[in-house]
Amino acid sequence: MGSAATSPPPSMKLAQEDLKRVAAHMGGAAASPPPSVKLTQEDLKRVAAHRAVEFVEPGMALGLGTGSTAAHALDRLGDLLRAGALPGVAGVPTSLKTELHATRVGIPLLPLGGDGGPSRIHLSIDGADEVDPDLNLVKGRGGSLLREKMIEGAGEKFVVIVDESKLVPRLGCTGAVPVEVIPFGAPHTLGLIRKVFDGLPGFHARLRMVRKDAEEDTPFVTDNGNYIVEMFFEDGIRGDLHNISDQLLRITGVVEHGMFLSMATTVIVANKDGTITVMDKKN
What we know:
- The protein is of the alpha/beta class.
- The chain has two domains: 41-164 and 260-274, Rossmann fold (3-Layer(aba) Sandwich), CATH 3.40.50.1360; 177-253, ACT domain (Alpha-Beta Plaits, 2-Layer Sandwich), CATH 3.30.70.
- Helix content is 26%, strand content 22%.
- The chain is built from seven helices and 15 strands.
- It has helices spanning 16-21, 41-53, 68-82, 96-105, 145-153, 186-196, 241-249, and strands at 61-64, 90-93, 121-126, 130-131, 137-138, 155-163, 177-181, 204-207, 209-210, 218-219, 227-232, 254-257, 259-260, 266-270, 276-280.
- The strands form four sheets. It has a six-stranded mixed β-sheet with strand order 2-1-3-6-14-15, with helices on both faces. A four-stranded antiparallel β-sheet has the order 8-11-7-12, with helices on one face.
- A hairpin with a 5-residue loop joins strand 14 (266-270) and strand 15.
């Protein structure tokens, strides 16, 4: 994307309450807010999400992300739709949770493909668990990585909204890198995933487990009826990410992984000092 792509239409300005809290500045530099402003992490998520919604234009088909940051974008879209500011806008949800949220705030929904689906997805807006210097992402710690990657990979533009705690030098630095696997033979698939990183110091992988009430731990189940393997790295993933991606996807039983490589076109970062940084994908 060039610099022109980061200029929102005049009608999509931030809400006044957000303008009072933070001054946005495009192109990677950050504007200074009043020194008295104190923003919580939720405030930062909200400001970044509202900034991303400025990219939405009437008639667009959107990819609707999942997670706490994306939820703020859904709320903002609902407000604008009810105000009549975004006629013809509809979205494809990346999870059942997002489907319910979007329905609640009045966002019309579309399927991905088929007779009722859009001919194209113009723009997707979603959060991320990690963003590296090349705008590669880790996503899906909430378990929605497969639908997220399908929908966001089908779009023309993918705007990612994060606070600065999500910026990392390497993917895998701050927590699990998820891999969605089919339930049949999941322990076997887990063993094959471990072999990809055999001998790597500090690496370990496990099935994500959940406990319901006082019952025993059971595998976490995604919206697609699959399990999640969590991969942990002592100091992040080193090496060729695309090669590692290929090795994982060649394992029979692996459905998809949570490394979103070369997919984000714009990343909007809300900094803890109240400034916003917008980073565009290099051509």
